[in-house]
Amino acid sequence: VQLQASGGGLVQAGGSLRLSCAASGSTSSINGMGWYRQAPGKQRELVAARHRGGSTNYVDSVKGRFTISRDNAKNTVSLQMNSLKPEDTAVYYCNADEWSGSRRYWGQGTQVTVSS
User: Fold this and answer.
1) Which residues make beta-bridge pairs with 26?
2) In the chain, which stretches have pLDDT less than 70?
3) What is residue 25's predicted lDDT score, i.e. its pLDDT?
4) pLDDT in tens, 60-73
5) The sheet that has 2-7: what strands, in order across it?
6) Cα(93)–Cα(67) distance, integer angstroms
7) CB distance 16 to 26 below 8 Å
8) Separation between Cα atoms, residue 69 and residue 112, nearest integer Å
9) How far is CA 43 from CA 52, 70, 71, 110, in A?
10) Are 68 and 52 in contact (CB under 8 A)?
11) How buried is residue 116: exposed, middle or buried, by Cβ count under 10 Å (0-12/13-18/19+)?
C-alpha cells in the first residue's frame, strides 16, 4: 500500500486547511485510515481516524474543529481543519492500518503551520 498526501501549508490562526490522502496498491487490505501529527520535540499523536465501517475517533484537542472524511470507493481520506490554532502546527502524516492489524502504512509528511 502506498499513501500520497497533499494539502497543508501556512495559515493564520482561525483559518482552515484541508489535507487529502490517496491510497494505492492492495487497498482491500485496509481498514482504518487517518492522520497523525508530530510537532517538534513531541511524540507523534493520532489526530483522527476513520474505519471502513464509518466509525471515527478524534484526539480531544481537535474535536469540534476537525472533520475526517473517507471515500472507500476511491480509497481516499481527507481532514478538514477549521479554527486552526498555533498549537496545531506540526507535520501531519496520513496513515492506513490493515484489517489484521499487523501492518501500518505511512504517507509522506505534510507541514501545517499556524501563525498567531
Assistant:
1) none
2) none
3) 94
4) 999 999 999 999 99
5) 2-7, 17-24, 76-81, 66-71
6) 15
7) no
8) 18
9) 26, 25, 29, 16
10) no
11) exposed
